[in-house]
Amino acid sequence: MQFERGMAILDLGAYFNCDGVSSDANRLAGNFDAPHVASGASYPASELPESHSIFVAVKDKAIPLLFPDKGANANNISCAGQSIIVPPDRYRSVNFLGSAENGGFERTVTLVYTSGSDQERQWRMGDWCSETEYDEVTVIKSAFRHGWAGEVEQGTPCYIRWQSISADPSRVLREIQLPDHPHMHVFAITLEADAPY
Question: How far apart are the first and last CA of the chain?
Answer without folding.
Answer: 13
